[in-house]
Design brief:
This protein is an alpha/beta fold. It has helices at residues 13-24, 59-72, 121-125, 135-138, 154-166, 183-190, 286-306, and strands spanning 2-9, 30-32, 46-47, 57-58, 76-78, 82-86, 92-96, 100-109, 113-115, 131-132, 146-150, 169-173, 195-198, 201-207, 214-219, 225-228, 232-235, 239-241, 272-274. It is elongated. The relative contact order is 0.18. The structure holds NADPH dihydro-nicotinamide-adenine-dinucleotide phosphate. Residues 49, 118, 150-156, 158, 175-176, 180, 237-239, 284 line the site of NADPH dihydro-nicotinamide-adenine-dinucleotide phosphate (NDP).
């Protein structure tokens, strides 16, 4: 067992910002990164809307900057997953990879969210063999070939545009007659000649024995089915917050997002704070996640001094 003052779980913009603030406040934070160090931005290409980068920056590069800044002030950054918690009383207890037991006076939860899947058996069977939820990670494998992407939010649009630069044609499957994405992203998609949008359409089946070789699309209005040969099938339909491990102790909403006291990172458990996409289903931006990480660290610091720990 190891005892720390401040434990941060998760390493996206929220976790790293919490670490920067907690470290500069002298809390000597310990951070466990989770499996995907850097979080969702590791799957992103250009980030054009994070203030301070007038020319934009690649997501992974930005997260490396966040990490270096957190380390500069003494954050102890380790690789590992929180697999069990006990928030029933002070100190709070967290188990990493089922074996390492950490006791902490405050815990900052910043485990973010992860990709959702359609739930088709063929999607699962061919996952990693043509089916992917990350165009930036896997698009390269299908350069010069035909691919399909499902979804109509900003992520789907961003990934469709990314794929259009690598692949011969992108077949974009949109379940309604309109997109949820911001106007500018929609326009970019609709103005890209090698992206074909299938409106009012769903994925009937991903086809292929060992690797994806086609997708069967069904039109929801006409019931007409079309089989389109593709080598890659990308799913970009939103995210699921990574809250399962905390749910026995921390209140979540109907979509599994952690509930915080409005305008604060406070959860229902004293000394446990939540920030970033784990508790934000509305804004979900790197900059809002970073802002909420800052708030979590400031509240953690306040909590520690009010409870005689610092
Ligand atoms: P969203 O929740 O915004 O969009 C999900 C999309 O997937 C919707 O179009 C939805 O359709 C569709 N969808 C959901 N379930 C299914 C299904 N079973 N079958 C087919 N389609 C489905 O998620 P995103 O990941 O796109 O975006 C999340 C947040 O991140 C948003 O706030 C977005 O603005 C932001 N973002 C911003 C970026 C930027 O500013 N550069 C880049 C990427 C994301 P329907 O519309 O019919 O519900």
């Amino acid at each position: 067992m190891e005892k720390v003052s401040c434990l941060i779980i998760g390493s996206g913009p929220a976790g790293y910002t919490a670490a920067i603030y907690a470290a500069r406040a002298g809390l000597k934070p310990l951070m466990y990164t989770g499996l995907q160090q850097g979080g969702q931005l590791m799957n992103t290409t250009d980030v054009e809307n994070y203030p301070g980068y007038p020319k934009g920056i690649m997501g992974p590069e930005m997260m490396e900057d966040f990490k270096l800044q957190a380390e500069r002030f003494g954050t102890d950054i380790r690789f590992g997953m929180a697999t069990k918690v006990d928030f029933s009383g002070a100190p709070h207890k967290v188990w990493i990879d089922d074996t390492i037991e950490i006791h902490a006076d405050v815990v900052i939860l910043a485990t973010g969210a992860e990709a959702k899947w359609l739930g088709l058996p063929s999607e699962k069977r061919l996952n990693g063999n043509g089916v992917s939820a990350c165009a930036v990670c896997d698009g390269f494998f299908y350069r010069g070939q035909e691919v399909a992407i499902v979804g109509a939010g900003d992520t789907a649009c961003e990934e469709a545009i990314y794929l259009s630069k690598l692949c011969s044609n992108v077949h974009m499957i949109v379940r309604r007659d309109q997109m949820r994405a911001s106007k500018i992203m929609q326009e970019r998609v609709l103005n890209t000649p090698n992206i074909k949008v299938y409106w009012n359409s769903e994925t009937d089946e991903v086809l292929g024995d060992t690797v994806v070789d086609a997708v069967r699309i069904v039109n929801r209005v006409t019931n007409e089915k079309t089989t389109v040969p593709v080598a890659g099938f990308f799913v970009a339909i939103g995210h699921q917050p990574n809250s399962a491990v905390f749910k026995d102790f921390i209140t979540t909403d109907e979509q599994d997002y952690i509930v915080t006291v409005p305008g604060t990172p406070k959860t229902n458990v004293a000394g446990v704070f939540a920030c970033g996409d784990l508790q934000d289903k509305i804004y979900r931006q790197a900059v809002t996640a970073a802002g909420s990480g800052c708030m979590a660290a400031l509240e953690a610091e306040r909590y520690l001094s009010e409870h005689g720990h610092a």
